[in-house]
Amino acid sequence: MAQTRDRLGRRLIEEADFVDKGSRYTKRFCHFISGLCRYMSIHAVSKHLDIRWETVKNIDKASLSTLLLRAKKLTNLFILALMKSPGLKAMII
Prior knowledge:
Blueprint: E1 2-5, E2 11-14, H1 27-37, H2 42-49, H3 53-70, E3 82-83, E4 91-92
Antiparallel strand pairs: 1-2, 3-4
């Protein structure tokens, strides 16, 4: 659903495939944000795109949750460790 206004200023709602229902941003822009979050911090992405930090966090959280739902269970996993380093956000070994 996308909101538009006509010449008289009335609000119109139209169906659009490229916008999720209840979302203010397009699917392509949300994918762009989640891609940037792989290489930059959430704070840096919000400053770069000039949108709120919470918005970037929620978009990235939704993207990660759909990504993890698509993943099956982990197989042949011997050691699971989570390491944080200054250059990387997190690294799973």
